[in-house]
Every structure is written in C-alpha cells, then in structure tokens.
Write a structure and sequence with these properties.
The chain has an eight-stranded antiparallel β-barrel with strand order 1-2-3-4-5-8-9-10. It has a two-stranded antiparallel ribbon with strand order 6-7. The protein has 210 residues and is of the alpha+beta class.
C-alpha cells in the first residue's frame, strides 16, 4: 500500500487543485459552519461492542456552495483497502442538517453518493475511490443508496499526543448499499499538523487495513 500511496501522491496533489461542488475548508472561522467543519480522522467501532475496531475512517465536513449555516456536506472515507480492487477507497458523501449552536448534525435516510475521489489523510491529498468506476462506465459503479448519520463536534474535546487540544467528533452512521447495510460508531478528532497525533490511526492502517 505504501508504494501505491507514493505513486499516487503527485497525482493527488494535482487533483487537489481542482474545485468540487462544496467549498474547501479554508482559514478558521471563514465559513458559516466553521464550528464543525474540517478534516477528521478516527476509529469506526462496532456499535454492539465498543472494543471491536472495524476500520479507520477519514471524515470531511464542508459548507454548502451557498454557505448555509444550517446545512453542510459530510464525506466518509473508509481507509480499509485490504482485498479491494486496485486498493481504492470507499467514500460516501451526503447532505446533513446542522444545529450550529449545539455543534451537531444529522441526516435521516438521505440519498448518498460515492465521489470519484476521496481525501486520504495518509498522503494528505486526493485518492481514487470506487465512485470513479461509474464515470468510466465500469462494473464497480456507485453502490450506495442512502445514509443515516447523527454526530457532534466538541471544541477542544481531545487532548492530543503532542500535548495540545483538538476538536473531537463522535457520530453514529448507517450506510445502505446495493449489497447490504453497515453501521458503526465513529470516535475521532480533527486532523492536526503533527504526525504523532495521527499515529494511532495510521498504525492501525499499516497493521490491519493495508
């Protein structure tokens, strides 16, 4: 996986220059949902057994093109590439309603899509996802039908390994695909600029997912 990550790093950097249907998360307090937006990384846990770690997920929360204070986009990226065709990532994007004062968001059985590319925190750039196969007209097209999500961001809710505080994110997720349904409880934190803060998540990827 590390070899593939290296090969894709330059391409990912170029891809990141292109805009998407949502605004990029920019400087702090620049969007209408700045209290919750950003890049997060965390563990997806079995909802029936919190000691059972299913995967590492990257989460991207962005404002809408109209920069609404009560709506946002949430993209979930499963970092598990083990046994998958060309080691692509599964990514799911959905609109959510936001209570900005409570710093919560939710969506109930909303239509969800798989974007062509997904943010990969391992390379800090874009990486190929299964949604790209739909664009190419191939069999690995979009499989996601809907998603239900309920989450909360807590400002400075995590004490990081480097001794600072970062925002925490906790949420419950259910994704319905053509081939079945999956649910998990996510517990994570906003990505910082320090590798030590992300070490537990990246080590899990190295040891169990790749």
């Amino acid at each position: 996986m590390k070899k593939i990550v290296t090969l894709f790093a330059f391409t990912a950097m170029l891809c990141s220059l292109f805009s998407c249907e949502t605004y990029k998360v920019g400087e702090p307090e620049m969007t209408a949902v700045h209290q919750i937006d950003g890049k997060f990384v965390g563990f997806a846990l079995n909802p029936a057994d919190a000691t059972d770690t299913l995967s590492v997920y990257a989460v991207l929360i962005t404002n809408t093109t109209d920069d609404e204070s009560d709506r946002a986009w949430v993209t979930l990226i499963d970092m598990n590439t083990a046994g998958r065709h060309w080691q692509r990532l599964y990514a799911v994007q959905m609109p959510v309603s936001v209570d900005i004062k409570a710093q919560t968001f939710k969506a109930d059985n909303v239509a969800a899509e798989e974007p062509d590319k997904a943010w990969n925190p391992y390379i800090e750039g874009l990486y190929g996802s299964y949604g790209a196969y739909t664009t190419a007209g191939k069999q690995w097209g979009k499989h996601t039908k809907s998603a239900t999500i309920s989450g909360k961001v807590v400002t400075d809710g995590v004490n990081t390994a480097t001794g600072y505080k970062a925002d925490s994110l906790e949420m419950d997720v259910t994704i319905v695909r053509d081939n079945g349904q999956e649910s998990f409880h996510f517990v994570g934190m906003k990505k910082t600029g320090w590798s030590a803060d992300m070490a537990a998540y990246m080590d899990f990827c190295d040891n169990y997912l790749w």
